[in-house]
Every structure is written in C-alpha cells, then in structure tokens.
Write a structure and sequence with these properties.
The protein has about 230 residues and is an alpha+beta fold. The protein has 2 domains: about 35-130, no CATH class; about 135-234, no CATH class. The chain has 4 helices and 11 strands. A 5-stranded antiparallel β-sheet has the order 5-6-7-8-11, with helices on one face. It has a 4-stranded antiparallel β-sheet with strand order 1-2-3-4, covered by helices on one side. Strands 9-10 form a two-stranded antiparallel ribbon. The longest helix is centred in the first third of the chain and has 17 residues, at about 1-20. It is globular, with a radius of gyration of 27 Å. About 25% of the residues are buried.
C-alpha cells in the first residue's frame, strides 16, 4: 500500500513540476432518442408530393436533406415518365434551376406497385433524364476549361426498375494538350497546336443504396452497355 501511494504522489509531483495539465475528465454524452433527431416533414416535400399526386401522409418525420438554393413557393415538374405501372416525377423546389454546377437539389419520386421511392432523405439523384435499357437515369453535370484544356463530368444515379438496384455512375471526359503545344497570346484565343490535342474518357461505377454502398464495382452487363453508349456521346 505504501508503494502504491508513493507512485501516485510521484506522478502528481512530476505533473506539478513539469507544468503538464491533466486532461479534464468528461462524462460520456448520452445518446439522444431517435425521435429527437428527426425533423418534421418539410414544406418543400409536402408541396412536391402534392404536385406529384402523392399523398403527403406517405412521409413521416425523418432526417430530410437541406435544399441548396432559394426555396421556391411554387415547385414545378421538370421531368416525368409513366409506363407499365411505373411513374417517375422529377421536381424543382428552388427558384433557380435545381441542377447546379456539380450538385443538385431536385426532388424525385418513383412510384411502382404502390411503393414510393424518393431521394428526399438522401442526396439528390439529380434531374430525371430518361429510361434506358430498363434503368431510370437521373443526374447533373459540371464542366470547365479553355482552348487548351477542358473537363466535363457527369454524375448519374441509375435505378433498375425491375430489381430496384441502384448504382452511382461518374463519367468524365478530359481534352487538351501539353503546355508546350498550347498556343496563343491571351486566355481568349489559346488553342492546341494542330494534331496535339488528346481526349481521355473514363467512368466509374459504385454500389448505391445497399450495405456495400460506396464500393467501386464492375457494372452488370446491361448497365455497362448503357454507359459505353452514353460515353460515345460525351
């Protein structure tokens, strides 16, 4: 017992002489009940659901995403699809275009066999584009560059209407030349030396909406063909 007391005293003495400060002990913060972290159904979602002819009662308090941009008092439909018992509605809830530079605030609904899927609780899928090869495609773009270097990127969410599988796609195109082959005396008229410009195209596919979300994967064959066809037009 004496030895143990000596060790404690020595430790306190060393702390006092060295000027070290003992980290204050803090009690662990209790986890808040789930109900306290949820938010009421926002007005933009109620209005969007009504516009899409979906009962607002379909939505319960949850962690709904914030809207990026100036919320519009009157949301508007910017894309729709209805065929074979499947209905898709894409809505802009902002005064600006809900598809911004590299992001989106569009709100989407997929109604199928009485089940409603939406991106109101997650990041936006983007603006509805079309149904292709059994996939509903949503997305947004970004691009920048000049006469010597340019980049275009497209972010897509592909929703397989039969299996309900979701995939996140990143498609990119880079065009340009080296500094040595970049000609011109001002930013407005620069261009690549004839024959020196090169184009590189790339795509990546990630699982989305499943337990393995975020993992890069090899796409199913039908999705791969869809992507390759789309890449030709970029």
């Amino acid at each position: 017992m004496k030895i143990k007391g000596f060790i404690i005293l020595s430790c306190l003495t060393v702390l006092a002489l060295s000027g070290c400060k003992k980290e204050p002990e803090t009690a662990p913060k209790p986890d808040l009940p789930v109900e306290q972290t949820k938010k009421e159904v926002p007005q933009w979602l109620k209005k969007s659901a009504a516009l899409a002819n979906i009962s607002p009662s379909s939505f319960k308090p949850s962690l709904y995403r914030p809207i990026l941009g100036t919320e519009s008092p009157s949301p508007k439909i910017i894309g729709s699809y209805e065929q074979n018992g499947i209905r898709i509605v894409s809505i802009s809830v902002t005064e600006e275009d809900c598809n911004g530079y590299g992001f989106s605030s569009c709100v989407n609904f997929i109604e199928q066999t009485g089940k409603i899927l939406t991106d109101a609780e997650t990041e936006s899928w983007g603006k509805f584009k079309k149904v292709d090869s059994g996939y509903a495609l949503f997305g947004f773009e970004m691009g920048e560059g000049d006469g010597c270097s340019a980049h275009f990127g497209e972010t897509l969410t592909a929703f397989h209407l039969e299996s309900s599988e979701q995939y996140k796609l990143y498609l990119s195109v880079d065009t340009g030349c080296s500094d040595q082959d970049c000609l011109g005396d001002s930013a407005e008229n620069i261009q690549c030396r004839e024959g020196s410009s090169k184009t590189e195209k790339e795509y990546k596919v990630y699982s989305h909406g499943k337990t393995e979300e975020g993992q890069e994967i090899n796409p199913p064959e039908d999705l791969k063909k869809l992507i390759e066809s789309r890449m030709k037009n970029l």
